[in-house]
Amino acid sequence: MKIAILSDIHSNIEALEAVAKDAKEWGACQWLVVGDIVGYGAAPSECIELLRKLDARCIAGNHDWGVIEKTSIDYFNFAARQAVLWTREQLSSQSREYLEGLPLTLTHGEIRLSHANFISPESWEYVFTLYQARRQFDGFATRLGVIGHSHVPFIIQASEKDGRAEQVMGESVKWKSGSRYLINAGSVGQPRDDDPRACYLRVDCSGREIAFRRVTYDVAGAQRRISQAGLPSSLAERLPLGR
Ligand SMILES: [Fe+2]
Q1: In Å, how far are 14, 40, 81, 238 from 225, measured between CA atoms?
Q2: Distance from the CA of 2 to the center of ligand 1, in angstroms?
Q3: What is the CATH number of the domain that holds 162?
Q4: Which residues span the domain enclosing 6?
Q5: What is the Cα–Cα distance from 85 to 18, expressed in whole angstroms?
Q6: Once rounded to an integer, what is the mean pLDDT over residues 144-171?
Q7: Comparing C-alpha atoms, which of 27, 8, 208, 218 is closest to residue 126?
Q8: How many CB atoms lie within 10 A of CB 25?
Q9: How many domains does the chain have?
Q10: Using one digit for the tens of pLDDT, what is the confidence trace for 176-186?
Q11: Rounded-to-integer distance, Cα 201 and Cα 208, Å
Q12: Centre of ligand 1 from the C-alpha of residue 177, in Å
């Protein structure tokens, strides 16, 4: 069983299409999405449509809930707020219903998803440090816990025996019995780890391997779409920088 886990797509259809193609070629047969389908980018309905076609199981992120007014956007920066307001105007009633139907967390076999964190998902608090990451293992009971939100990929491995948790260096890990993992899936549509390529997570259940995958996509196309929509130029300018 090969599962593709995507996070923080952010209305970037050029990146999502490239990731979908890459993951299909790898043999992905299940699709999980860790929230923030919309916001920042200029193709919200196109992204929702493609996720429907893939029959992806998705949860909500703060931007998804911001668009449907289920969470406050008062703390969003100017550009993020502009994009949320623009997205509200663009969405069809069908796409809005789709966002309204997204759960905050979900469990898929041995995988638990929550957009920001597992301790208080609706707080949207970030996991930036090892200290914060260690606390997360008390918030899910499955072998893998996957988050997004910061747009920066990482893997933390914790021993079931003594609870010790450390960051895994590198792009992949063979998962061991006796260990649990907290993973940030990175971002498909707006990576912020200085690598502009779209990022997603490959989980190979039979090979018991977790690996990040980076995919080049039509960044210029995504930028053009943002400019044509009249969204803040900073949203286009950051894409080739991976920030
Ligand atoms: Fe995000």
Answers
A1: 10, 11, 18, 14
A2: 24
A3: 3.60.21.10
A4: 2-241
A5: 27
A6: 95
A7: 8
A8: 8
A9: 1
A10: 889 999 999 99
A11: 13
A12: 31
